[in-house]
Amino acid sequence: MRFSKMLIPTLKESPADAEVVSHKLMLRGGYIRKLASGIYSYLPLGLAAIRKVEKIVQEEMNLAGAQELLLPMVQPSDLWKESGRWQKYGAELLRFTDRHDRESCLGPTHEEVITDLVRKNLHSYRDLPINLYQIQTKFRDEIRPRFGLMRGREFIMKDGYSFDATESGAEETYEKMNVAYHKIFSRCGLKFRAVDADSGTIGGSFSHEFMVLADTGEDTIVTCRNCSYAANMEKAQAAISPSDNAEMKDLEKIETPGKRKVVAVCDFLNITPDKLVKTLIYIVDGTPVAVLLRGDHEVQEVKLQNLLNADEIRLADDKEVFDATGVPTGYLGPAGLGIKKVADQEVGQMRNFAIGANEKNYHMLNANLERDFEIDAIGDIRTVTEQDLCPKCAGPLELTKGIEVGHIFKLGTSYSESLKATFLDSQGEEKYFIMGCYGIGVSRIVAAAIEQNHDKDGMIFPMPIAPFQVMILNLSTKDEDITHAAEALYQKCLDNGIEAIIDDRDERPGIKFKDADLIGIPLRVNVGKNFSKDGQVEIKIRSTGETLSFSADDAPEKIKKLVEEALHIDNL
Ligand code: ATP
Ligand code: MG
User: Fold this and answer.
1) Which CATH number does the domain housing residue 362 bear?
2) Which residue range(s) make up the domain with 137?
3) pTM check: above 0.85
């Protein structure tokens, strides 16, 4: 390709509304343009990178036995009503009516459509397992679209769905996808971690998120510095504290005038927050529930929601707290509180702790779970911090930022049951399909790769997903010899099967260097003054800044070798 003929509208300055580096650089490098909030045009360079990702995804999915198809983007509401998600999905689902007044939506995901397809066309265990995927534009009316391709409203996703006849078969398929995903992200040249993710009511380790490690990530992941333990915040656990076996002391009511916050109460009582149990009120599917936690711990709401098997939970406001308990916030405690109570497991390890006295300006000392109050449920409902220890090996935990680029999930029979999708097993019995779903954020991967690989001058694309492998700069289009050499080198690269772009614009070298750094093609070849002097060209490696000089004749072989090496390294 020729730079002079391509649509690469580079910009000197970052547009003001771009917050993260990938967004800024993709706009500046002429990879994308914004059409509306969360909606972008992919320009030739952006699309080339996306196509590279798609190819890797297709190759690995096909190798793993999945088949590609393409489902409609517009979906009728009936199917969503059948699954129950027409009500549940909320405002992210863009709904509309057509000229015949038929309700429809733009597909944010395709469980309904694929399950409908399979229930109508596959009827026997002999047809199973089957794994189907597509690469398609999705629409989610995200509440806060931001960061360019990272969180768009319209974006490209690979979504795959598997149908198995048996539990063990479904688990095998899940494992195959797990392996394929590791290969896909390695082949993309990304540093990533697969982390245990929340699988809701399904349980077990049947949900993993694939996180590209980058400081700007929106997600936090918990990893152990000693062993392979890795989980996202919703799922992460910590080693439980040893139980305190101290003698139980007598319960004691104590005046704590105006002391409502944990820190203020603890300062006043001269204790540390790990000697206090705080009581929070949550509204759980419309009903108030008291949630007990050690003073220095915070609630992890997804864990709480799972423990309570609830559809919706939220913290109660002050009025709701008072209406439910008759006690102002700040003085609540579990003893004598007449509503449902759940406790974090760490509360069960404590002895002689402080609690609110359920009376304004009073707390209690020396409360004990076994003696002073009863609870309805206990479990892990707290957020892990860097002060915690690994649940597997008790090593130190580390919190890192990541960008979710993929998610695999064993769905079980939730969709096949709601949509009545069945097959006949070998005994002739009617059974629900056991499903799995597997997503990859194709357009997000390109943004994540840039978040992970850039410097002050621009993007640094990993070779396997770079729009081009090499960029040849003709540094003097007015000089016939230089132009001839640059063109010959470009042609030779193409002949060698190298994806090359030549900057043949009538521009100063400084501008060409700047644009080349910005666009981030892994290899750059300068054909300029040194060629005129002694027939040399320079190959600059974008990631290291290293510059190698070669005779123009030797350059094509060297370029080929460097490309192959980079693809090979990224393949490991
Ligand atoms: P997130 O928590 O980031 O909103 P999600 O859990 O909603 O993601 P899934 O429904 O699992 O995402 O979708 C599969 C993949 O699609 C995600 O792993 C992510 O890479 C990508 N993705 C999801 N939402 C967006 C978006 N708004 N823009 C770009 N990519 C997205
Ligand atoms: Mg989402």
Assistant:
1) 3.90.960.10
2) 50-237+398-444
3) yes
